[in-house]
TrEMBL record:
Compartments reported by the entry: Cell membrane
Protein name: Branched-chain amino acid ABC transporter ATP-binding protein/permease
Source organism (scientific name): Neobacillus rhizophilus
Pfam families, per database record: ABC_tran (PF00005), BCA_ABC_TP_C (PF12399), BPD_transp_2 (PF02653)
Keywords: ATP-binding, Cell membrane, Membrane, Nucleotide-binding, Transmembrane, Transmembrane helix, Transport
Length: 602
């Protein structure tokens, strides 16, 4: 059967048309503006371009990756001063100076984010305030390097010994800005961008698809600080004079305001934010003291009345999300063959998972107490017990979310006790969650595609330049993700926002994501909670299919009919201890289970 493109709905099409027209108009105006505008306006628009570069940097950090930092004024300052020193004191060419400034800011970002990644990530916000203070002091006091409070003059720009006039400077800044905007767009529409967005959405689920979120946070912040440093470097040569006062907390407020007005985590937000926030102060030329009050008030009010900013609000109105609908293909015809699409594990080991003496204590509470359990390859093994029995804690230890207090876990013959969650996914373990953990800033199909991220190898450079390799792998990945969506009958909702799905559909979507990871052992934590009776029966059929394809399943479930119907083996726990195990028939008639779990007399 032929493939047909999934059609965006009419509102999304309208948005896409309007968006393209606005972009084309903005590009055209920016391009021809110097032919008509005087020097003043050319400098003003150049400054907006610089702010766009800075706002793009901040957006990659806070908007997409969820890393809050108040040090972007400091990164901007480091970039500006390092490039100025490189050009004026060491006679480096302008372009080398730009790179030096950007890199220096990136290095500072690295130094700051490395320790911050080891503690809870919101500590980076605190560390960033410290950095801003340090940079302020250095700029003011380190006379021979920065010129101190007296400032520093930078000679006019030379590129290949040609001194640039304002007209030429405008186009150089315009090209650098365009590069940064396109870089942001390309990065975010690739697996690297999706990984960053996933971390912001849900750290645990991100680790569940194999993302080492500490490393990604560091990388995201490194890139953001490079862009902020680049903006500062361009500003230094553009303005011709640097003063430490420019890079203070007031400027941090200005950067935050650009993000809040434009809309964090959107591709056009930095552009909209930079334009608005550059023009707002002009309204207060007559009363400059009022400017800070207005900026502060806007920071207080806007997140409450327009939390998504201008770009986010417009997108919400058109129900648009930044997705990859241009490469999503809907396959019709043959039913998806799970067996064909799973990686067969060649291991001969029959006991796929062996748990011995597993114990977890939370302070005085022993949630799991010396549990022994063995899961045979190719079976559906259910773990049941009353509320609070320790089931979720058990699977959290098996999947590396909780560290066991005692005991051992062996998977495919290798000990995995205490392994990190993101490492276990690479070893063939995937899971769903008691409370659904989807990535709500990604579309339905992207939520599945991210499950297959380990099978694709294109680099971040491939992403930025959208190489053939990147496009080929993305197309394959989305095509496969669509196949997985077929299993759960959601292929016609590929471009939807996951929040628009019913609770049952969201559970199924999580299952499709876990399946695309091609696991050896699939762990399902209460997969049917919130599903209707019909959906539960559909789910049972899917589980049968998955098991027949050779994937072993460990399932926690309260729906007893389902457990009895689809399980090959059942382990029953109560107060963290195993009280029974066996096939469904024996467990169903076990008097201890009846007493403890089913509430009947033995
Ligand atoms: N992070 C935690 N800190 C402290 N106590 C915890 C923590 N997680 C679980 N517990 C406790 O451990 C015990 C087992 O909880 P767990 O969630 O594993 O049970 P469960 O069998 O999955 O329950 P349910 O069926 O209601 O989901 C409970 O008493 C719970 O309160």
């Amino acid at each position: 059967m032929p493939n047909s493109l999934i059609k965006a709905n009419s509102m999304q099409k309208k948005y896409s048309r309007i968006f393209k027209m606005v972009c084309a108009a903005a590009l055209l105006i920016s391009f021809v503006l110097p032919l008509f505008a005087g020097d003043y306006y050319m400098r003003l628009i150049s400054l907006i371009f610089i702010y766009i570069i800075l706002a793009v940097g901040y957006n990659i950090s806070a908007g997409f990756s969820g890393i809050t930092s108040f040090a972007f004024a400091a990164h901007y300052g480091v970039g500006a001063y390092v490039s100025a020193v490189a050009i004026t004191r060491y006679n480096m060419p302008f372009l080398v100076g730009l790179l030096a400034g950007a890199l220096a800011s990136g290095l500072v970002g690295l130094v700051v984010s490395l320790p911050a990644s080891k503690v809870k990530h919101h500590y980076l916000a605190l560390i960033s305030i410290g950095l801003l203070e340090i940079v302020q002091q250095i700029l003011n006091e380190w006379q021979w390097f920065t010129g101190g409070s007296g400032g520093m003059y930078i000679p006019s720009w030379d590129i290949f010994s040609i001194s640039l006039n304002n007209f030429q400077k405008y186009y150089v800044i315009f090209i650098i800005m365009l590069f940064c905007v396109v870089l942001q767009r390309n990065l975010m529409k690739s697996r690297w961008g999706r990984d960053l967005i996933a971390i912001k959405n849900n750290e645990i689920a991100a680790a569940g698809v194999g993302i080492n979120y500490s490393k990604y946070r560091i990388a995201g912040y490194f890139l953001s600080s490079i862009l902020a440093g680049l903006a500062g470097s361009v500003y230094a040569s553009f303005s011709g004079y640097l003063s430490p006062d420019t890079f203070n907390f007031e400027f941090t407020v200005f950067i935050l305001l650009m993000a809040v007005v434009g809309g964090e985590g959107t591709l056009s937000g930095p552009i909209i934010g930079a334009v608005f926030v550059t023009f707002i102060p002009m309204l207060f030329n007559a009363a400059p003291d009022l400017k800070q009050i207005v900026f502060g008030a806007l920071l207080v009010i806007l997140p409450q009345v327009m939390p998504a900013g201008i770009a986010g609000t417009i997108k919400k109105y058109f129900k648009e999300i930044d997705n990859n609908n241009y490469i999503v293909e809907k396959t019709e015809g043959n039913e998806f063959d799970i067996e064909r699409n799973v990686i067969k594990n060649n291991s001969e080991i029959e006991d796929i998972l062996v748990v011995k003496g597993l114990t977890k204590r939370f302070g005085g509470v022993t949630a799991v107490d010396g549990l022994d359990m063995t899961i045979k390859r190719g079976t559906v093994h259910s773990l049941i017990g009353p509320n609070g029995a320790g089931k979720s804690t058990t699977v959290n230890m098996i999947t590396g979310i909780d560290k066991p207090s005692e005991g051992s876990i062996t998977f495919n013959g290798k000990e995995i006790t205490g392994d990190k969650f993101f490492n276990l996914t690479k070893k063939g373990l995937s899971r769903t969650y008691q409370h659904v953990r989807l990535f709500n800033n990604l579309s339905v199909v992207e939520n599945v595609a991210i499950g297959g991220r380990l099978f694709y190898s294109y680099s971040i450079i491939d992403s930025i330049f959208r190489t053939r390799k990147m496009k080929k792998e993305e197309r394959k990945s989305f095509h496969e993700a669509m196949e997985y969506l077929k299993i759960i009958n959601l292929n016609d909702k590929a471009n939807y926002d996951p929040e628009s799905l019913s609770a049952g559909q969201q559970k199924l979507l999580e299952l499709a994501r876990a399946l695309y990871m091609k696991p050896d052992l699939l762990v399902l934590d209460e997969p049917c909670a919130g599903l209707s009776e019909t959906e539960t029966m559909e789910f049972a059929k899917i589980i049968h299919k998955i098991r027949n394809a050779g994937i072993s399943i460990l399932m926690i479930e309260h729906h007893m009919d389902l457990v009895m119907e689809i399980s090959d083996y059942i382990t029953v726990i109560d107060y963290g201890k195993k009280i029974a195990e066996g096939d469904p028939a024996s467990v169903n008639t076990n008097p201890v289970v009846k007493t403890a779990y089913l509430g009947e007399g033995a």
